[in-house]
């Protein structure tokens, strides 16, 4: 379990470092995202959609504000298109993280520990709890990308990964896109309530899950 946590922490720190650098340098801000989507809107809705998908895919590498982009996607494109393009971005990011880590992630596991038994233990643990981790991967920033990479690195079967990724991404994209679609500059409350509600519910669920997992991991006296 310790080895798996070390790998997850290493991946999380890698993603977090990109977020800190981007925020410090002012490379990508909410105003930037809004400006790009407004500019794309002058061409066509599908141009806006491609920008949305590209930004959400880039989240795998440079920590983009995922919820904000999805809300803006619904606002600028309407619910149906906003949902479709946001979901495409989620799947591109998650699928790429899974595929790259499945192909090369074993090296990352070996960097954490060269003990073959420990690696087997890590794979077993993620195979037992991985679906739950993936299902709740939108609970916190960075967790989704880390969980997708862990799924690939521990060689989780693709069908199982796809199920977990669908559970975390489809409802999330739908709710956020809808919240954005019924919001406006004059009345941003639906988007604000959506952001607060999604974040709060998912965080609470993740907190309860981690507490129970820790209790279950403790040896019984």
Layout of secondary structure:
Blueprint: H1 2-25, H2 30-41, H3 45-62, H4 66-77, H5 79-112, H6 116-135, H7 143-153, H8 158-181, H9 189-217
Helix pairs in contact: 1-7, 2-3, 2-4, 3-4, 3-5, 4-5, 4-8, 5-7, 5-8, 6-7, 6-8, 8-9
Task: Give short descriptive properties of this protein.
0% strand, mainly alpha, single chain, 221 residues
What can you see in these coordinates?
83% of the residues lie in helices and 0% in strands. The chain has 221 residues and is mainly α. It has one domain. α3 packs antiparallel against α4 (66-77), α3 packs parallel to α5 (79-112) and α8 (158-181) runs antiparallel to α9. The longest helix has 34 residues, at 79-112.
Number of domains: 1
Beta-strand percent range: under 5%
List unreliable stretches of 5+ residues.
Answer: 18-22
The total count of helices amounts to: 9
What structural category do the secondary elements indicate? Answer: mainly alpha
How large, in whole angstroms, is the Cα Rg?
Answer: 18 Å
Helix content: over 70%
- Roughly how many Å apart are the termini? 19 Å
What would the principal axes of the Cα set say about the shape? globular
Average pLDDT reading:
75
Count the beta strands. Answer: 0
SSE series: HHHHHHHHH
The largest pleated sheet is described as: none
């Amino acid at each position: 379990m310790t080895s798996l946590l070390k790998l997850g922490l290493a991946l999380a720190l890698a993603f977090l470092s990109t977020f800190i650098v981007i925020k410090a340098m002012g490379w990508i801000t909410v105003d930037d995202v809004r400006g790009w989507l407004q500019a794309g809107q002058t061409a066509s809705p599908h141009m806006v959609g491609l920008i949305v998908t590209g930004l959400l895919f880039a989240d795998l590498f440079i920590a983009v504000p995922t919820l904000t982009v999805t809300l803006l996607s619904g606002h600028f494109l309407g619910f149906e298109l906003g949902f479709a393009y946001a979901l495409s971005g989620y799947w591109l990011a998650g699928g790429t993280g899974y595929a790259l880590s499945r192909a090369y992630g074993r090296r990352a596991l070996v960097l954490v520990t060269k003990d073959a038994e420990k690696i087997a233990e890590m794979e077993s643990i993620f195979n037992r709890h991985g679906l739950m981790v993936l299902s709740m991967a939108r609970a916190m920033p960075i967790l989704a990308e880390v969980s997708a990479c862990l799924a690939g690195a521990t060689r989780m079967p693709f069908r199982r990964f796809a199920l977990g990724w669908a559970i975390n991404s489809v409802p999330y994209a739908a709710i956020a896109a809808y919240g954005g679609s019924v919001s406006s500059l004059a009345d941003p409350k639906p988007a604000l309530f959506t952001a607060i509600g999604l974040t709060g519910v998912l965080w609470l669920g993740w907190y309860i899950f981690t507490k129970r997992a820790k209790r279950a991991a403790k040896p019984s006296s």
